[in-house]
Amino acid sequence: MVKITSGAIVPIKAMQTAVAARVSATIRATGRRYLSSRRLEHAMANLSSSVGDLASRFSGRLLMPGSAEWEAARRVHNGLVDKHPALIAQCLGSADIASTVRFARERGLEIAVRAGGHNVGGKACCEGGVMIDLSLMKHVHVAPEQRAARAAGGTLWGHFNRETQLHGLATTGGVVSTTGVAGLTLGGGVGWLMPKHAMALDNLESVEMVLADGNVMRAGAHENADLFWAVRGGGGNFGIASSLEFRLHPVGPDVIGGLVAWPVDRAPDVLRLFRELAAKANDDLMLVCALITGPDATTKLVAIAAGYFGDAASGDKAVWPIKSLGQPVKDAMGPISYTALNSMLDVSYPAGARNYWKAHFCESLTDEAIDTIVDAFMRCPSPMGQLLIEHFHGAASRIAPTETAFALRADGFNVLVLSQWMSPADDAVGTKWSRDAYAAIRSFGGPSRYLNYFDQDDTGDQALTAAYGPNLRRLQQVKAKYDPENVFHLNVNIPPKA
């Protein structure tokens, strides 16, 4: 007997017949084969004869092709990603994850891992394999006396922030609240608290991992320390994070922050002000500059967003130069709740929009770089496209590049060309703009790039060096120890090498 997506209970033979019929109907209805016939036959032959065995030791939901639930669950945040797993395992805990890993490995099926589903490169899904979906695992437990919180692997930052803010606490975690905790943390973790409390990964105290052999292991500073070093910046290369424990800090509930925007013809002046403020910013101040299009989908704008995490009087003084730059079209800078600050950009990143990103790290923002950035944005073909500049400084930059696997520890500016649009008809234009803008901007940067902004075509030795820098060799050794067969390869993949 086995559970199927409708919630009914049927004999395994009947379920196998139903699955085969669903797949065939889906192929006929769409008028195309989303898998090659050989891959589809292989995947379904492996699954139809044995999925009942997995169901007997699985507490969550198993979704098969052809069901409405499967169709919804295979979709990730980036609408440009269109992949079709043969099985989606929506897990409720580490035991479900471990059972699914073993099940997939025994049948030679590729494994993709979805936590928040925000990965722009679409690594959270796969074609014809098994998608391990943690989206039902959203529990957060806060221990206010210890200033600590543990989050399940599918938790989103908005949920995490609301739970910790009940106790006046927070940790560094994203600037968009619909982002997943696990993926953002393991790849770095840019957030508003970054200058004061370092990256999200720097606040990680321990992590529970399901490894490639299906075993569960806890890693921390004094327990499996090599694995703990590697997962902080090595992404999903080493296993599946079923829960993560964070160090918390007193924050909020209200801070000074928000956004001020001007017409785009002020962009050179605004970017120079941004550069000036960045040069003298203390650890309490986080700055982001954005070239965007207004709500009318026509008017191009330039904006500075800020968050200040010291006392209110000092915060007012710190953001005053932003507010006093003449004639803004919008001034939403002032007292704001920490949770509102962390969600104010959500509307700019709707689920299902088609995204193609390119990012580069610049240690300085020269006049020539500013002019190039503005010119690149003026060529943006979509009102949803953006060009963002995140200021890296403070606590995050004072940590040595080899202390964790995350090597991007310099002061400077993370420049993101964020191409975004809705219609498939605009795919070629949208990707071309991002590539062209990136090609123009990258000459002002160094060799490093921020791992979480890698897109699906960022592969090869050059990408590995840009992502992992001096830590690559050690990461390969840890990979060889914990995942020698490279089971977890849908990521910015580190080849195992002893």
From TrEMBL:
Pfam hit, one: BBE
Keywords of this entry: FAD, Flavoprotein, Oxidoreductase
SUPFAM superfamilies according to UniProt: FAD-binding/transporter-associated domain-like, FAD-linked oxidases, C-terminal domain
Keyword Glycosyltransferase: no
Gene Ontology molecular function: any one: oxidoreductase activity
The keyword Ribosomal protein belongs to this UniProt entry's keyword annotation: no
Domain FAD-binding PCMH-type: 81-251
Domain of life: Bacteria
Cofactor field: FAD
Family, per entry: Belongs to the oxygen-dependent FAD-linked oxidoreductase family.
UniProt xrefs under PANTHER family: BINDING OXIDOREDUCTASE, PUTATIVE (AFU_ORTHOLOGUE AFUA_1G17690)-RELATED, FAD-BINDING PCMH-TYPE DOMAIN-CONTAINING PROTEIN
Protein name per the record: FAD-binding oxidoreductase
Source species of the chain: Azohydromonas caseinilytica
